[in-house]
Specification:
two-stranded antiparallel sheet, globular, 6 helices, alpha/beta, 4-stranded parallel beta sheet, 169 residues
Length: 169
Amino acid sequence: MDRILISACLLGRPVRYDGAGKRLDDPRLERWQAEGRLVPVCPELMGDLSVPRPAAEIVGGSGADVLAGRARVVTVTGEDVTAAFVAGAEAALEYARRSGCVYALLIDRSPSCGSLSIYDGSFSGRRLEGAGVTAALLAAHGIGVFADHDIDRLAKIVDVGLLREPDAG
């Protein structure tokens, strides 16, 4: 049985920067949880950030750029939290591997978990295509990453048994 790493906030856990959850109400999540497939994670907490915490965005690129040292993660108050985001991503990857996760269902637009889009680093609400730090690291290591609003595509793969996305690592 393929296991799915999931952003803890999507299960309603109050781990987001603002101290809230962002529950994804979908009966498939309830079923997958009952089947023991879901492995909740919050990379930002795994990187020792607190709840609540100042909002953060990637400045100068995407999650892959952060991992390569070409961009950084900065809070709205100007604090550089790049090291915490990288540490959290590495911890999430290790946890996914230990837990047997083949896929990840992550909240989009997050500087950690965004997989299709992230905020542009200006704290103005503008978005750009790209992945967050954790999403980029997971994908680079062969874990199929899906955004919360792309659950239908994940469900087709998990529930219908379509071909697994190829491993990159």
